[in-house]
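Lab notebook page, bench 4
Experiment: in silico fold of construct C2
Operator: M.H.
Input chain length: 550 residues
Purpose: comparison with the prior construct
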Amino acid sequence: MAVRSDENKRSPLKAWVRALERTAPIERDRTLTLPVVIGRLGEHLGDAPALLSTATTLSYRSLAKACNRYARWGLARGLSAGDVVCLVMENCPDYMAIWLGLSGIGTTVALINTHLTGELLAYSLNLVAPRLVIAGPSLCAAVSEVRARLAPGVECWVNGAGSHELPRLDLTVAALPGEALQKSEFRAPTLDERALCIYTSGTTGLPKAANVSHFRLMQWSHWFAGLIDVQPDDRMYNCLPMYHSVGGVVATGATLVGGGAVVLRERFSASAFWKDVVAERCTLFQYIGELCRYLVNNPQQSEESRHALRLACGNGLHGDVWQKFQQRFRIPQILEYYAATEGNFSLYNCEGRVGAIGRIPPFLAHRVPVALVKYDVDAAAPARDAGGRCVRCRPGEAGEAIGQIVGASGRRAKPFDDNLGDARLADVEVQGPQRPECAQLRVPILELFGQLERMRQRRFAPFDGPHRHPERQAQREMKPHAQRIAQRHVGLEMSQRALGALGAFGEQRRMRPCGRAVRSQHHTNCRVARGRERPIECRPDVVDLASEAT
C-alpha cells in the first residue's frame, strides 16, 4: 500500500473542519451512543475487518453480534443502569466488545489497570462498588487473590481458557443469540449517562476513577476520526493498553467510526514493531512519546523503510525525538495533542510544529474557555494576587492551564465529569480579560464553518489569498445554505448571530463568506424574518459572536 501524498489531508484547517463536521451532529439524537453506532456499522460494513489480534479477528458484523451477546448476558445477570462491572483483561478484540455490549444496556464498565495487584487492585475494584468482575485468563490469579477483600455478593468471571476455577464468560455468551436487542428488552442509555470509569495513573496518590459519559465517548471517537481523516482502507496499529482512554477509546473508537481496522497487540515491542506494521499493512499509529524514543534508539531494521504509515498520532513526543523519528522512519505527518481523561479541554498540534503540544484556534476559543495561569511550585497551587485571583501568564511564560467547569446555571463551555475518589473541585477566578461563553451556538457555528469550507473548495479563493470573486456573489451563494443549517438547529432567533460570527471570521481572513455581521453591542440579538433583520428583546446572558469570532 503506497503512502498517501495528498497534501489536503495534511492541511491544518481541513483537519479542524473535518473534526467539527463529525462532532457537530452528536447531540441531535440523545440515544445515539457509540454502542448504537457500532451496531449500525455492523449492518453497513458486514465482513470488513474491525478488530484484529494475533489470535482473533472480529469483522464489523461479528463485533456487533459479540456486543449483543454480552449485552444479553448482562441483562440475564440482572444488570441495569447504575450497576458497575469491572474489566481486568489484556488487550484483545473481546475487551472492546464486552464494554460496548454492557455499556449499551446502561451498565458502567470500569477499566482496571492490568498491572495492579494486591492492595491497589482491591482498592481500585472497591472504589466503584462493582456487581461483577470480569478477568482475563492471565489476570485471573490476581483477581482471585483479592476476592476476599471485595464486598459480599460480587461475582467474578473469567473470559477465556486456563487453569482457574471461575465460571467461563466466553462459553456462556457463545450460547446466546447475536441478533440486535429489541427496544422492549432494555432501556437505552442517553449521552449524559456514564459509560465507563477510566482510572488515573495514581502518580499523585491512589488511582482515581474518572467518569466518562457516552457523550465523551462519541466526542473523542468522532473528533479524532475527523482530525486524522480515517478512511475504510486505514489500519491503526494499537499497542497501548486498552484500559486507558488513548488505547481503549481514541485509537479504537476513532478508527472504527471511520470504517477502518484496528490491529491490537498486548504490549509494545521495539524489535517487533516495524515487522508488525509492515505485515499488517498499517497506515496509522497511536503512540505515547517514549515509544518513539525507543524506536529511534533501536538498531536499524530493513522493515522500517517499507512501511505504509501515513500518520502517527499521540502525546508526549519531545522535540529532540520528533525530528529524528519523523526523518529516519519517513513519517509523512505527526499529530501531537495534549489531553487528560479527567480533564475538560484539550490542545491539538494540527500544524505539525516540532515540540509543540497543541493550541486552540481562534474560531474555537469561545467553545473552550481556557486560561494559562502562573503556578506556585512551592505551594503546589496556582499563584494568586492580592485579591485572591489567579494571574494570567505573559507570552512565553510557563504556567498551568485551567479549563472552565460546568456551572450550576447550566451555561457551559464543555461537559465535565467528576472523579470518583477525589471530591476537591474549586471555582477559580482569573484576573484579566475573559471571553464569555457562547455554548448555545456551538452546533451552528461548527456546521456553518464546515459549510463555508466546502463551498470555498468549490467556488472561492483560499482563505490566505485574495478574494477573486465579487462580494455580493459570495453572499448570494453562501447565505441561503448557511441560514438553513443554522435555523435547522437553533431556530430563527439565533441563526443570524451564528452567521455574523462567520462573517467576522471570514472578514478577518480577507474573505466575506456570508451576510452582514450583527450589531456589535453585546446586548443585541437579531432574528431572521422574511429575509430581513430586526432586533429583538435584550439578552444579556447571550454574547454577540461577531465580536467573539475575532
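Observations: The chain has 15 helices and 23 strands. The first helix runs from residue 12 to 23.
Next step: discuss at group meeting.
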